[in-house]
Protein: Syntaxin-binding protein 6
Organism: Seriola lalandi dorsalis
Amino acid sequence: MSAKLAINKEVFVPHDEKMLAAVQVKRRTKKKIPFLATGGQGDYMTFICLSVTNKKPSHLSITKVKQFQGSSAFVKRSQWTIDQLRQVNGIDPNKDCPEFDLMFENAFDQWVAGSAGEKCTFIQILHHTCQRYSSARKPEFVNCQSKLLGGNSILHSAADSVTSAVQKASQALNERGERLGRAEEKTADMMNSAEQFAVTAHKLAMKHKC
């Protein structure tokens, strides 16, 4: 089982949530932590996760999850609601890069993702989800490539593809209905003509007998 699947199963599913996206990160700048606060836990992996509640109305959260060296368990360290997210900084709007910043009401973190692709996918899903779920107070996305915020995004492309497929199917059904309608009209006309011909033929036959 991959780390992301395990995080969803261990951290979010028990709380009736589902994880929408996760990105493994490291700090760009080392955070100053008091010596006593480290607890001698050693190295760890950090994931930034986006999740949503299964119950309506939906509530979005961004959660920092860690896995410490020598342990298979994932531990929830910090969590914010989407309304506490103030800004997402993509660092460079002109190229793919793994760096990004998240600014909350009470926290500011500078991260480096495992790859530029992971970071782009996370920001893309985060932006799409904020537009869909968050309140009127949406976070600001700065220095992000336009493809991540719409237009050429995989999410919007997928949605457009679905919409296009539905429209094409609907158009095909309408055209088929029109063709069937025309065929039915022609059939009805032919039947009427046949009936008229039969009536006329019958009248002529009666006259001939007389």
